[in-house]
Amino acid sequence: xxxxxxxxxxxxxxxxxxxxxxxxxxxxxxxxxxxxxxxxxxxxxxxxxxxxxxxxxxxxxxxxxxxxxxxxxxxxxxxxxxxxxxxxxxxxxxxxxxxxxxxxxxxxxxxxxxxxxxxxxxxxxxxxxxxxxxxxxxxxxxxxxxxxxxxxxxxxxxxxxxxxxxxxxxxxxxxxxxxxxxxxxxxxxxxxxxxxxxxxxxxxxxxxxxxxxxxxxxxx
Length: 220
Prior knowledge:
CATH class of the largest domain: Mainly Alpha
CATH topology of the largest domain: Serine Threonine Protein Phosphatase 5, Tetratricopeptide repeat
Shape: globular
Order of helices and strands: HHHHHHHHHHHHH
Mean pLDDT: 95
């Protein structure tokens, strides 16, 4: 048996064990010792959906930002479980760009937004953007704070910049659509929501918005 063929059943065994005991630390430890990120990325394209599930789960736990493209494309996988695992995992990957200090600062911004301290989040995000303008999630988190403060045009610009850097950032596309709704521009909102669905077809709330807006615009 080749090394390549013998490694796949091992990954499946680790995945099944994880499903049974939900021991994420054990799964991470064993996968990291046996698989490189490149191997896991290749397995995301495997014919067997169980292998794809195991691979995307592992990348969500272990992958750095270089896995973004592979996981972004997997958001349109034929297997719903793969898509669900990717939607959870890719958000972790988005936060792993940059160095330790930049990731720490992003974590602070995310927590400030979650606590509804939007002015502080916007200030922190702006400082992070100044030092790391290529960090897509810094732009996205500032857009979140701006939306919450009613600065919709600013939020649109930051969502757009997020998508320029990370074209798989479906949340930014959906957020931009919400901004356009607040500004009374349903046509642009519909375009953004459709873009979000192309990136992530399982955004059911966004799908509802698309149907409503399409009916509204066609009924004019």
